[in-house]
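hiii, so i know i said id send this last week but things got crazy w the move. better late than never?? heres the sequnce for the chain we talked about at the cafe, plus the structure i predicted for it. fair warning i was half asleep when i ran it
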Amino acid sequence: MRGGSIAVVGGSIAGCAAALAASRGGAGKITVFERADAQLRDRGVGIALQSDRYDELRDAGYVAPEMPWAPLTRRVWTVRDGEARHGRALGEQPFPFRAYNWGSLWSELRRRVPEDVSYRSGAVVTGLEPDDEGVTLRLADGHEEHFDAVIGADGYRSVVREAMFPGAGATYAGYIGWRGTSRDTSGLPSDGHDAHNIVFPGGHCMAYRIPDGSGGHLLNWVLYTEPPQVDGLHPDLKTPTSLPPGRLNSQLTAHLRDLVAEHFPPYWAEKVLGTPAETTFIQPIYDLEVPHYTSGRMVLVGDAASVARPHIGAGSVKALQDATALEAALVAGSSWKEALERYDVNRGAVGSAMVALARRMGSAQVENTPDWSAMGQPEFEAWWQDQNSGSDRRSGFGGHSMKTK
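okay and structure toks below
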């Protein structure tokens, strides 16, 4: 197994981490196939890493202190209260997270990929053919290449997963995330160290400050709610995709803006409605579980393997943890079969637990929201605890601990 060839399909955060894992695991030749031609660093949305999970990933060598980040210490849940500018805080909770810009985090991970790894931008993989000795990749330009093993890091529309488990695609959860970033961070409470959940009947909006990648900050926000039930409004929501500004139906955009104007405290309405249209997009929310993380010489990491709704704040954590676990399995295994079975056992149960928790949180926070206006801190804490009941003590909001005890 040592010195073998590995293809990584997908070159984003999960793909760069997987390439690093393959290199540390002893692969002799690593090739990353990234379908996008443009620089991924231009993606400016925010992500957050829970501080304990960050420490684990730092110790494993996948993140580092020099990666630009912004500290978050508390999360405040806020409901509109008449014309009170910032609304009323109905609940507060500790929020030990580090906020990142997706693009700058990807850039730092990309820089850590060893120089001898071949990273091919604009390389579209259209199919895979496994055999006893590995996997042949078919590319859109007609070429075929054979590898000893293939890592699918190509997200929730994974071509690798389709080859492993035909038809096992992501399922639309029934609601959307409207996302945006703005340079207007003026007047943020607590000097921007709080994350804010603005709640309303049928959903909520999370907003927090992230680095802009050049020394400043952006306000990152995402609003979760069900779209209006209008025939033909967006028939492609059920097909795994995202909808950039040019594809946003004007009726859907008007619905979301009206929702914000009606239900948000004035300060937060100004921030969301003042966000430039070119930095907003729609992200339908999906669920995905796979029967296994491996099949033969094919292996899945990140959203290619399982997709948990974003309410648990652990999407990037899971991708980086998958890579860490894959590295450990490759180092410990004496054969491809042993290594990949070890990885599957390690990560399959974690992925299923995260998907289940995220579904409970999605139900409580979007699909079956409480009467937020009647809540105070005691009611909020009971509501929050109910969502986490039954969870593994090592698992919860922010991701699953990699520690065994």
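btw The longest strand covers residues 88-101. thought thatd interest u
miss u guys!!
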